[in-house]
Amino acid sequence: MTATPFPVSEIVAARRPHRKDAARNYDALLTAAREAFAEHGSDASLEDIARRAGVGIGTLYRNFPTRRDLFESVYADEVNALCQAAVELAGREPWEALTAWLNRFAGYMVTKRAVREALDGESDIFQSCRDSMYEAGGPLLERAQQAGVARADMDFGDLLRMVAGITATAFENDAQRDRVLSIALDGVRTTR
């Protein structure tokens, strides 16, 4: 994999403030929003997000003038982290790299559902994020297929839909979700 930036990387970099203190607040707000959305969905309180980040509501609005700006920024940041994870994992054995990335993807789906629900798919950022995700994760599947450890009769879109379907189900806890994902991935893996 190349180290060239993905389309979403450029979006994230353009939105992030350059001053250290402002960037620190921005990052704290994204982290707090991600946690709040995972816990409360798209109805999470902006005041709660600001409190969790340790900043005032004015700082939240200065960074994210609208709720939509916050949703888009959280979404882009999550996808960017997934893309960077694909780059970092690319040096591992093909099956290990693919499954490690898919486990990261499964965790990301919790935030994605809340954000997607709030934006109704109307955001221009979604296409850049989708393109970036395919550009980053697709080669992991292709490499596993070329190594003979992943089924050749599926494409990356099939794989993402399978994982997304699994993560859309309610689980008792993360361990159960991980176990079910592992079972599904056994169906993707080929025996040599």
Automatic annotation (TrEMBL):
Q: Which organism is it from?
A: Streptomyces cinerochromogenes
Top-rank taxon, per record: Bacteria
Protein name (record) = TetR/AcrR family transcriptional regulator
Specify the HTH tetR-type domain's residue ranges.
23-82
Task: Give yes or no: UniProt keyword Transcription regulation.
Answer: yes
Keyword list, A-Z:
DNA-binding, Transcription, Transcription regulation
One Pfam family of this chain: TetR_C_43
Keyword set includes Cell membrane: no
Residue range(s) of DNA binding per entry = 45-64
Q: Which SUPFAM superfamilies does the annotation name?
A: Homeodomain-like, Tetracyclin repressor-like, C-terminal domain
